[in-house]
Design goal:
Layout: E1 12-13, E2 17-21, H1 27-33, H2 37-40, H3 50-65, E3 69-76, E4 81-92, E5 97-105, H4 114-130, E6 134-140, H5 144-152, E7 156-166, E8 172-181, H6 185-197
Parallel strand pairs: 5-6
Antiparallel strand pairs: 1-2, 2-3, 3-4, 4-5, 6-8, 7-8
Helix pairs in contact: 1-3, 4-6
Length: about 200
Amino acid sequence: MPALPPLQPVTLTGEIVRLEPLTLDHAEALATVGLDPELWRLQPEPVESAADMRRYVERALAGQAAGACLPFVIVRRADGQVIGTTRYMDIALAHKRLEIGATWLTPASQRSGANTEAKWLLLQHAFETIGIMRVVFKTEATNTQSRQAILRIGGVEEGVFRKHLIAQSGRARDMVYFAILDEDWPAAKARLMARLRRAP
C-alpha cells in the first residue's frame, strides 16, 4: 500500500472558526489570549510569558519542518480574533495515521462551538481529503473535561498508558488514548454536525 503524500499547510474554514497555518507572526496574538495558567496546568510545559509563547510556536514550526506535525492557529471568523491553536501531530502517513492534539482555546471561547467546529474541520480533512484511516486523541487521565469532550465527538477510549509521558516538572503523566477510525467517521461526523447545530 503506497504511503500518503506529505501534508501541506492548508486553511480550513467553517462558520465559527477558520484554521490557518501557524506562523511565527501569530506568536504575539497567541500570547495575548493564551497565558491563563489554567490552560497549561495539565500540559507538559507551562507557557507563562510572551517569550514562552514564541518558543512554543517555534517548536511547533520546527516539528512541521521535520514532517512531524502540521500546526494551525484558530481564528474566530466573526471578528478575525486569534483564539487558540491546534495541530495534526505524530503523523505516520505510511500507516495512514495521525493525532489531533496540542489544542487550546482562550477561556472566553470555550463552550462556544469553536472547539467542536475545529475538530470537525480537522477530522473531515483527515478522512475525506488526506485519506487517513485512524485519528488518535490522547489526554491526561486526570483531565476529566478533555476526556468527556473527546467522547462527545465520537472518540473511542482504547486504554490508559500509565506513566507514559513526563512533564517538564518531572511529574509522570498517565495518558488516556482514544481513536476515531475511517469506518467510525460517518457516525462521528453526524454527531459533530448535530452538536454544531446546537452551538450558541
